[in-house]
């Protein structure tokens, strides 16, 4: 769908100085779903921008294509954005010196579509009548295009191609007079998944959508030198650890947390809402050392491995994780099954920003750039490969081939999530259903296509047992698992408008 | 005055990837007024972008800080912008390959305030309900801030800090349905000097403000290979010469020229208006080989030199121009006076983008980077220096010192414009009155400050005689000469609001 | 020691365009010894340069600061070098297109001293009377400075600051007429550790120093399309795997392998020599999936963990590796001790090229950039940390602090190498003895300095048992373990000259 | 001819990081001979590097492709080099801060062959047994290849492809013990044109070849703050003016000037020699404000115009210079002939580093990028174009076409040099004879090819009259005019070896 926007032109929007899609080259190659973003904000701390850069570094796994920070020094807002890793964008102390102030908000971006443009890098910033406002957003709106068209019709000019800019324009045209009322006015018009951090001259605001699909937590820096402890908002607890902040609580679904010099207060403009937290955060996205919604991610993953071993045990000689994300589940699987856990696949972490495109003689090398087999561990063995998900299946096939080429006698694959049968519209980059292997094939067919002797996924009940419930039913829709079930808890307005337009 | 804008923050608006103020370093050093922009557009030609790049190159003297081109290929708009000279921005054939199409509009920018941001580089582009629109603007609006504040209040979000973006928003919110009507709606709300070239999907539009302060001409490429000749719009005739186009006519003050596949038509939405063309274009800005408003710039400059010699002749041994702009007037002065014309000052054209900042022992070298004296021509001589204007007087002082150090016995300065006593608000970068030497001192004082034995400026009547009139009165306000007279023909809305705000 | 060299100046040798020491910023921060280089060569294959880039990518762990490839197309040599990871330097297909030919040699560089200059990046290339010659070198010469001084005295001009350039000059001034004889002439004059790959117009040559301190292996690509299988030389077997080559054999200590269109032949100019292979390759340097000298690196590391558990078992709740290098030993330790293996420390692999320097409030964050603790695994537990070595001890201290801050009740550290008491002069970047913790303190003191409840290193006999010998004595000096013992098998000529100069 | 060299490979010698031939793109387009280099050195001054950068800026006309400075601070040498204009390479104060010291030597490069490599940028520097040595060279050796081959045979490894590196190696292998003796030893082996500035730890040395083909002058900075005045060596007097130094004298042909803390001394190792100064310096290369060999360049050029008018006067309406170099001669021609001097051709000085390559419809635009016609001055007129030389004639043809297209009734061309019939081997970039128009055609044919109504060159006697002699004979071989006469005063060893090799 085309999106009208200021300064950019559909089809070839980038000027030379803005264009940098090298980063996108390897994006889909590892055939994983991708988190779209990480957010971090701090109110009233020395070195606010440095803390934010550290927080973004700890959240790097949530987005590696671009980073941005907006700081506020009591008089002015300061912005720096760039393409690349946090360390590349903010590693220069001269850059950090351009971001003074006691408050800051930052964003890591993983772009889902098109080239990565510097204009699209968040936080977005606009100067309003009432002063500046920076917005960092993790998630995806399901009625962004519909709203965008209406706003353009009204005379609004968009300058990015991101969903998130819709927030800015809705705030700009709101007739309410203060920032929080304008923000609520805007929130009431959008649908979708949004964890927001907003920085104005007078407050730092955290927002989670009514269903709390994407995470957002509140933390506090210990007081130093007699100063009051600063408040921190972040996507995950691992970002608190790196800056030495203490976890206070999760921001609640549908909650607006407003932090200012008077302290902290909370609004619930949507009333009491039902949590539908993204279950895939536990399976793959979140960092293993994070604690989400009260549960340790690492423990949960190991426990999924345990359940998987119970459900789909198999006689074998070694349990081998597909690194890095399959490691905890494989450890759980090994512990439960009593079969030794071995590093049969080695991951090369030194992949630069770009790499050689396969030519002539050299084919299908993509996967070899990241993984290599540890032959002595695999040769002549019955191998259980443990991975977290199968999306297109292309990488799984290559890894199985590598493992067989290294001499494995049997290859069994165990997946620590149910089959991925549906696309995500709430902030995760997944391909269309037509490209999802599990949407097109049953498990037997998938096993054949991937080339394994047996294939099993964790069951729904097994997954929810690992999360501490008796079974899925017992979890009472506490999570969004639409990518496995097609049970979408938020209306897909744009999708419906495009695929099932109403008759004229 | 602060200007609210999207994504930028007053005080430190630039991200690292956007910031490049190196180009600005030498900006004021030559102590000349500066033209703000050059514009060029072409409709229905092969290689439209290449022609536009050539046209911009010929107009390089009107702006050296940045360049941009938007092309249209019948389906999509394509944009490329960059900081630097036209050859630096468009010299790469791979860049040109990203600008396909038979129509294009281009812009050279000379920034008057703040850092040079890629966001500010024109043409500005926006995608509207009715399709894309690119706008290139030479001039300055006198009510831009007033309009901007009103637009921000209405919810419009600005993304550049240029006056020109006001046009875009006024067009965006207009209730008229077609591009031309929306454009006229916008024009009726702005005040100031504006030569515009606008490119939409269906037409190329040229506009001159009601008084025609800034130039805009119409040209036509000869037909080739049976194709119809393409139309060209440009700031000066020298841009026609480089692409081999023929001069058709000046766009008239207050005229809108609309070029589309049906041909060309003209609108006069402001009715018949009085021309007040900028007289400084003749004195300094325009390229000597351009013909403006029917008069050859080179001839006019020489004739000013003739008039100056008649008015302020002096016994001397050599007539020496301050290169490059003083050359034609000095030739006229020499011819009329019979005193030999000699190149006593040599200009070094190889000044890179940056240069050494004077330190310790090395002071006041700025002027030496650009000029050096040709000692044998000056030593022991009575020298008449001919220059086009005195703004702050700092460079004049340094040049006089250099000429004396080279042995000149006497130094007389003759200036081919009247004393610059007022700021320009119509698109020329001049300092505030407090910094204009002639606004603070009489001629005798100026002579002393600059260090010359005598100083004379062309008289008003002399200037207009050189332009073909009997005297200034006889020219009947045909020109804007506000920088010499303070007679501002267009209301200074923003300036008045800032300096003489109405009582609350 | 100062090294005379062409074009560079000691102290500030780099021109702006050559200087890039950003890469060096994090070099010592992880407080590990560093391998200096990886080498790869291929003779007679399609896409020789692409294969070499892949091989270098697989050898990236041996050097991350710079990479270079020289190819030969039958008529001309072609060179490309750059700073950064292999993927950064060779990821652009346009770059690869500049490296045509069926033969190529490549090099990964880890610089031990000074800034990383593009001039120092290998392979070094020189045009001789007899044609071009490219040399890639892994190792370090112990008489390089002595030879360099003599060569400079003779009139040779050095252009890099690398030891390796000595080879080039010795070959250049040799009076022998063919490449192999000149090479042998040069080899007879140098002392030290050198695995060389040399590419001339007529042959690809692999050389290992008489003691075979650094690794070099021979592999062969399977024949395709009726062509004969190409020969490959590489530092490790993992580089064969990525290109699909089969392992043939280790190049022997003191052997020269000459590959040309007639086939392969072997010379032993030093006669039969004693192998003293670097034992640290097993402990830390080599990739776990490589097989060195007939032994699988991964198995050896696990076995060291087993021996360590036997020697220095301790009551504890969890075995936690310091990732990534401590993982296999920790697995062995856990398996032998029966204590659960847990990922209590998470490594952040997304460290960009640079990062924020700690300021004010933010101190000692370096280690946190790379590692974070997985609190639920550590809290309230008795923890055994397994790491491969302690060099300065600074990182160990920080990690222990982190683990305690995460709630560990006891922290025991087990190290899979003996105490590092001596510097390496054979190609490994280690600090001077004065900075080696184990050279200055006994184990009790070290435990206190690092802050652990107990500290143990693998014993010499335990280490050699893991390698398959009864004890160290039984290994019969088969390895170089000078960094643990000070038993240097190759004379340290330069070091002696500098530290114990002969009386005049 | 192929030149063996270190690190570079014939055919594709440049690595990506070294390659930058964009600068070369416009090189031959203006169809002028090019000076190869400018040199500047200073001994014992504060801000020695800043003075050198200024001096190089004043000498920018002698080489625009690259610049370098080596400074010495009493302990160490410091180097910075870069491609581009002096202001681009040295305009950053942080760069200047890396070049401390009271002594410095600098070089502007105009490359004659191949790509411009940073390795080729001078000053060349080498660290010898006796310390560092920097060498800056203007000129060309006629036996460089012969010497180079002999040096390579001896084992010397070249790292640049410049002639100048031969000096370095000859100095390196000399058996003499001090710098000056080694330098003289080297000089006695080379043939050709060489103005050298050499900087060692103890002295700054200026050398002119025995015939003094290329210029070199000695100047002195006025004493400041009680310090002794610093010595300056430079290619032209205009470089003294910019730093405020006073002209002392020309370095004499065959003279070695040695400046150290004791003062200045002079050696004449070649005995008394005959001066053969390059006459083209007067005609075209030198800056008009320089004084060479006691004669003002500007005056000489004007006088050539006077002589030309006397010899080849023609009835015409305007005298039009081809800017910029033809201006003084045109002034002289106009003054003598009484025909008005007019700027009928305008030069665009804003040509960026690159520009659009002509495509399709757009042909032969090269010349239009730099020049445009001032139509009112030319239309209907009989025009005399005055230029300094005709090399290939391609540009002349285009300019004549432009002038005719602007309406000129007659076009007469007058050239202020004799016909260029031979190549220069002494440091000027001229094409081979086969491409020199005057080497292939008589004047009548040339006139036809260029498209003029008449064509005349200054006669030999006229040229020498302008230089103050009665005629050429009377000038007694005081100048090298080989490019006009083929009378080569220095043996062309390499050229002869290549074109007339001796029978085996």
Q: Describe the biggest sheet of chain A?
A: 7 strands, antiparallel
Oligomer: homotetramer
CATH topology of the largest domain in chain A: Glutamine Phosphoribosylpyrophosphate, subunit 1, domain 1
Low-pLDDT windows of residues of chain A: 1-29, 356-364
Helix content of chain A: 25-40%
Structural class of chain A: alpha+beta
| Biggest β-sheet: strands ordered side by side in the sheet of chain A | 4-3-5-2-11-10-12
The average pLDDT of chain A is 87
Number of domains of chain A: 2
**In DSSP terms, counting alpha (H) and pi (I) runs of 4 or more, how many helices of chain A?**
18
Dominant shape of chain A: globular
What is the first-to-last residue Cα distance of chain A? Answer: 19 Å
Proportion in β-strands of chain A: 15-25%
Largest interface in this structure: A-C, 68 and 68 residues
- Strands of chain A, total number: 25
CATH class of the largest domain in chain A: Alpha Beta
Q: What gyration radius of chain A follows from the Cα positions, in whole Å? A: 23 Å
- State the CATH architecture of the largest domain in chain A: 4-Layer Sandwich
At the fourth level of CATH, the homologous superfamily of the largest domain in chain A is: Aminohydrolase, N-terminal nucleophile (Ntn) domain
């Amino acid at each position: 769908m085309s999106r009208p926007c200021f300064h950019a032109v559909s089809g070839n929007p980038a000027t030379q100085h803005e264009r940098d899609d090298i980063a996108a080259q390897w994006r889909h190659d590892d055939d994983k779903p991708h988190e779209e973003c990480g957010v971090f904000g701090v109110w009233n701390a020395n070195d606010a921008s440095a803390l934010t850069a550290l927080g973004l570094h700890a959240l790097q796994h949530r987005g590696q294509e671009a980073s941005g920070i907006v700081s506020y020094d009591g008089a002015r807002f300061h912005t720096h954005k760039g393409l690349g890793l946090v360390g590349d964008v903010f590693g220069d102390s001269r850059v950090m010196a351009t971001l003074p102030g006691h408050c800051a908000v930052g964003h890591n971006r993983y772009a889902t579509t098109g080239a990565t443009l510097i204009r699209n890098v968040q936080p977005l910033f606009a100067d309003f009548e009432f002063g500046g406002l920076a917005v960092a957003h993790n998630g995806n709106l399901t009625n962004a295009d519909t709203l965008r068209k209406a706003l353009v019709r009204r005379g609004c000019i968009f300058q990015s191609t991101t969903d998130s800019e819709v927030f800015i324009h809705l705030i700009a045209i709101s007739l309410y007079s203060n920032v929080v009322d304008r923000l609520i006015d805007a929130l009431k018009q959008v649908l979708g998944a949004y964890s927001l951090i907003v920085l104005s001259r007078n407050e730092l605001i955290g927002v989670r959508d009514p269903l709390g699909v994407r995470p957002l937590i509140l933390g506090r820096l210990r007081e130093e030198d007699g100063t009051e402890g600063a408040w921190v908002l972040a996507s995950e607890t691992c970002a608190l650890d790196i800056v030495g902040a203490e976890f206070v609580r999760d921001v609640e679904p549908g909650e607006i947390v407003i932090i200012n010099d008077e302290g902290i207060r909370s609004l619930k403009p949507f009333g009491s809402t039902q949590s539908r937290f993204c279950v895939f955060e536990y399976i793959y996205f979140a960092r293993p050392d994070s604690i989400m919604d009260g549960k340790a991610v690492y423990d949960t993953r190991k426990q999924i491995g345990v359940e998987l071993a119970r459900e789909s045990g198999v006689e074998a000689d070694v349990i081998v994780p597909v690194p890095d994300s399959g490691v905890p589940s494989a450890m759980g699987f090994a512990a439960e099954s009593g079969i030794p856990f071995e590093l049969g696949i080695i991951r090369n972490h030194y992949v630069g920003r770009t790499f050689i495109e396969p030519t002539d003689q050299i084919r299908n090398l993509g996967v070899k750039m990241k993984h290599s087999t540890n032959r002595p561990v695999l040769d002549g063995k019955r191998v259980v490969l443990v991975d977290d998900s199968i999306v297109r299946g292309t990488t799984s096939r290559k890894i199985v081939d590598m493992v067989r080429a290294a001499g494995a006698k049997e290859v069994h694959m165990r997946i620590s999530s149910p089959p991925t049968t549906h696309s995500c519209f709430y902030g995760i980059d997944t391909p269309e259903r037509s490209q999802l292997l599990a949407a097109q094939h049953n498990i037997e067919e998938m096993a054949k296509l991937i080339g394994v002797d047996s294939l099993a996924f964790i069951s729904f009940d097994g997954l929810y047992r690992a999360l501490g419930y008796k079974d899925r039913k017992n979890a009472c829709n506490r999570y969004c698992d639409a990518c496995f079930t097609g049970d979408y808890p938020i209306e897909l307005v744009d999708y419906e408008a495009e695929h099932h337009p109403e008759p004229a």
